[in-house]
Amino acid sequence: MQTQTSDSEYLTVALPKGKLFGLSADLFQKIGYTAEGLSDKSRKLIITNEEKKIRFIVSKTADVPTYVEYGAADIGVIGKDVLMESQKDVYELLDLGFGKCHLMMAVHRPDKRPSLMDYAHTRVATKFPHIAEQFFNEHGMQMEYIKLNGSIELGPIVGLSESIVDIVETGTTLRENDLEEIAYIMDATARLIANRVSFKLKFDRIHQMVEDLRQVLESEEQ
Fold first, then answer.
1. Distance CA 16, CA 101 (A)
2. Residue 103, number of CB atoms within 10 A of its CB
3. What are phi and psi of 131, to 5 degrees?
């Protein structure tokens, strides 16, 4: 019982390793939420600020929604693309605006077909099978989904698939591999998410954090 009491004093924040980490850590620092040694290169799995009763979990990007859904973290930062694909039962509190990219469908330029519907009943390689399936279902297209975890662009080049569904920031990788975007799916930015129970039990603290973050984001937009 004592452990639960002490745990409830802390606000646990899950941050994703990689490109979103630095931007997230910088944003939290602006509202006074930081801890000594907070780095995505840290070998420590949990980094704590005892004075402010904040814990940071630095996790693999795809695991952030899981930590938050199950309450191992009260809140987390994650890209909208990963959040939608994970289909986790969490609250989405705030669009943080950074890490902007978009999801799209692309094909190998030399094998491009005249229209989107010409790809019905073909194979699509993707890290995002749930998002891809929703997109193609909306267009009345049945597809075969091949889940890949890296170098999605290889799919159409080596004949594994006729198309890909992936995220794009600049489009450089597509161009370098002779791929062409043929359908836009959705924009994605970093989001602040919360565990549903934590949001109720620690409402005042989480609500204050959201308001502080919102003020920082609004001031930076001006």
1. 16
2. 24
3. -65, -45
Is the pLDDT reported for residue 160 higher than 70? yes
Residue 167: predicted pLDDT: 95
pLDDT bucket at 147, cuts 50 / 70 / 90: very high
**What residues are paired with 146 via a beta bridge?**
125
> Mind giving me the DSSP string for 141-201?
---EEEE-SS-TTHHHHTTS-SEEEEEESSSHHHHHTTEEEEEEEEEE-EEEEE-HHHHHH
Q: What is the pTM of this model?
A: 0.90
Taking a C-beta distance cutoff of 8 angstroms, is the pair 23, 190 a contact? yes
- What are the structure tokens assigned to 37, written together? 């040694």
CB atoms within 10 A of CB 94: 18
DSSP calls for 6-74: HHHH-EEEEEESSHHHHHHHHHHHHTT---TT--TT-S-SEEEETTTTEEEEEE-GGGHHHHHHTTSSS
Map tokens 């606000």 to a residue. Answer: 11
Check if the beta carbon of residue 194 is closer than 8 Å to that of residue 203: no
